[in-house]
Amino acid sequence: MKRVIVVGSGFAGLWAALGAARRIDELALPAGAVEITVLSANPFHDIRVRNYEADLRDCRIALEDLLEPAGVGHVTAEVTGIDTATDSVTTATGATYPYDRLVLASGSQVVKPDVPGLAQFGFDVDTYGGAMALAKHLRGLGRRGPNPAQAATAVVVGAGLTGLETACELPGRLAAIVGAEVTPQVVLIDHNDHVGSDMGSSARPVIEAALSGIGIQTRTGVTVTAIGEHGVTLSSGEVVPAATVVWCAGMRASALTAQLPVSRDRFGRIPVDDQLRVVGVPSVFAAGDVAAAQMDDEHLSVMSCQHGRPMGRYAGYNVISDLFDEPMLKLRIPWYVTVLDLGPAGAVYTEGWDRQVVACGAEAKATKQTINTRRIYPPRNGDRAALLAAATPWLQDRPELG
User: Fold this and answer.
1) Are strands 2-7 and 101-104 parallel, antiparallel or unpaired?
2) What is the pTM assigned to this prediction?
3) Sign of CA dihedral 318, 322, 327, 332
4) Which DSSP category does 393 fall into?
5) DSSP characters for 238-292?
6) Which residue from 236, 298, 240, 302 is spatially nearest to 265, judged by alpha carbons?
7) CA distances from residue 9 to 13, 45, 143, 288 in whole angstroms, order as listed
8) 3-state class of 80 per DSSP?
9) What is the pLDDT of residues 226-261, one digit of tens each?
10) Which domains does the chain have, with CATH numbers?
């Protein structure tokens, strides 16, 4: 029996496991020829990109409902070690799992620097647990003491995509909690000179107009030097009173990438070839946020479900093909879009790596909602054929507007 281990159950890990199961069927391999096991710290597939939203009831899917019908095993365990000399991984419990092929899809985490007070008073939307902790904190604001204005003020640190989406949702969430006696205030802070610096010059006016219309204040070109129970201190010396601080500044690949004998980029990602094999480690594939994969002749993948999902499907297909000396597929994605949720201001939809705006407002918002509630979800009816069909290594067309 050949053993394939998939580390991670996010967008890349889930689709790598299902893609591998599909390829086994396609090759008509005999029962028991390959054992696929997913190792992940939680028994869920989380729709992580929705963590900025208020209602997360539909954002966790039990892995057993997705993997069991496809004949894929799952162990709830945190992987702590990868030994490429013995082709094995170890978990926090001390268990060891040998592999013939490994797919590393352990994702990424928000970067939390050593800022005084961040660990005690900062929240995040990086994980489902983090988002739920923020929601619990927000619900408690209505019971705060004699300073309702401070209770209704939130600071969001980091004006990238996650920070922008979080900031645009917070005024409505705060208003629903603190009531009509005060007007919620959200302050968005970033060390760059502009908010949404990664979105380019075409989208910036749309983003800035949306923030202004919602009433979100910005502080750019500054950093946070300390966080307290009642606010944050900036590098400019300004103190911003706030009862809520949400940290959305920066992402880094899983620390497991450091255990492979390869170089890493500034995000901690490892290089992979066109078939998603880790360069220099032929028994290991990587997909999603841990991998720096070529998307076209000029651009590498970004940490997003837009790239993580197809990377997972191709890695799953290729890991089985590689085991049985079958042809592998080369991954290339010829288009790139960004759909940024701007809360009550709608959304902005851009195309191309230079992020040219093609739609904004309600039309773009409808597209964002379709992506968040349908496009990125696996089949949830427990049907094996549907799950394996969804794991086919093909590239979706870019999202339709409206």
Assistant:
1) parallel
2) 0.96
3) positive
4) S
5) -EEE-SEEEE---EEE-GGGGGSSS---TTS-EEB-TTSBBTT-TTEEE-GGGEE
6) 302
7) 4, 6, 37, 11
8) strand
9) 999 999 999 999 999 999 999 999 999 999 999 999
10) 2-109+251-336 (3.50.50.60), 118-247 (3.50.50.60)
